[in-house]
Amino acid sequence: MAAPDDNISEDGLFVEEGAWPPVPVVAAAPVAVLAEGCAAPVMRLFQHHVYEYGRGVRALFLMTLCRAELSLVLARLGRHGIDHFVQEVSPVKVNLFFGRPAFVAVARAVVNRPLNTLTAEEDFMLGTLLGYDKEQQCRRYLGRSGRAQPEEVALAAE
Fold it and tell me: What's the predicted TM-score (pTM) here?
């Protein structure tokens, strides 16, 4: 059996043993700043998303990243063959959508401008594809579209 350190990747964030999905591990060193204030916890979150993707828990993911994080994440996506696209947010931030090819294709078609300018229908579709709570997405859609929300419908948690 290989020593645990033999399977830690060059960034020290997780193990890639050849079996799918990669097994997440905690970085041995304290959280290091990658560049321009970007930290290793983002890479751990990304690896968790890759794990969920591999297990079929979710089919589409959205992460807002700084440019230094983006290059690391894109390298990982390429190695795993995961479809993705990048939406520019600002000179230092991007939105990264990744997941199953059909889901990414729909997200690419819908997200052609800033997320806060999407129509109520586009926002609803994107939220649903990202796996957000369906009832909350319905309520959000009703609120954003200006349609009256039935008073008698309570949230499941109420």
Answer: 0.71
Listed range (12-16, 28-32, 47-51, 65-69) with the worst mean pLDDT: 28-32
Spatial distance between the Cα atoms of 147 and 20, rounded to a whole number of angstroms: 45
pLDDT tens readout for residues 78-113? 999 999 999 999 999 999 999 999 999 999 999 999
Residue type, 17: E
Would you kindly state where each structural domain of the chain is located, as residue ranges? 7-117, 118-149
Rounded Cα gap, residues 119 and 110, in angstroms: 10
49: nearest Cα among 98, 95, 12: 98
Largest CA distance in the chain: 62
Q: Residue 99, Cβ neighbours under 10 Å: how many? A: 23
Q: For domain 7-117, is the CATH number 3.30.2190.10?
A: yes
- Measuring CA to CA, how many Å separate 111 from each of 12, 35, 77, 105, 131? 33, 28, 20, 10, 16
